[in-house]
Amino acid sequence: MEKEEAGNEKSKSSCCKKYLLLAVIAVVAGGLYGTGLINDITPDFFFRQQQDNPYLAAFVFFFFYVLVTGLSLPVAALMTLLAGALFGFAKGLVLVSFASTLGASLSMLIARTLLRDWVQARFERQLKKVNAGIEEDGAFYLFSLRLLPVIPFSVVNLVMGLTKIRLWTFSWVSQLGMLAGTAVYVNAGSQLQKVDEISVNSLLTPALLISFALMAAVPWLARILVQAWKVRGLYKGFQKPASFDTNLAVIGAGSGGLVSAYIAAAVKARVTLVEKEKMGGDCLNTGCVPSKALIRSSRISNTIARAREFGIRIEGSQVDFRAVMERVQDVVRQIEPHDSIERYTGLGVDCVQGTARLVSPWQVKIGDRTLSARNIIIASGGRPVVPPIPGLDAVTSYTSDTIWSLREKPGTLLVIGGGPIGCELAQAFHRLGVQVVQIDRAERLLSQEDDEVSRLIMSRFEQEGIRVLPQCEAVSFHREDSAQWLEARHQGGLIRLHFDAVLLAVGRKANTQGLGLEELQIEKNPDGTLAVNSWLQTRYPNIYACGDVAGPWQFTHAAAHQAWYATVNALFGRFRKFRVDYSVIPRATFVDPEIARVGLNEKEARSQGIKYEVTRFAMEELDRALADGETEGFVKVLTVPGKDRILGCTIVGQHAGELLTEYVTAMKHGLGLNKILGTIHAYPTLSEANKYVAGEWKKAHVPQKLMGWLERFHSWQR
Question: Structure pTM?
Answer without folding.
Answer: 0.77
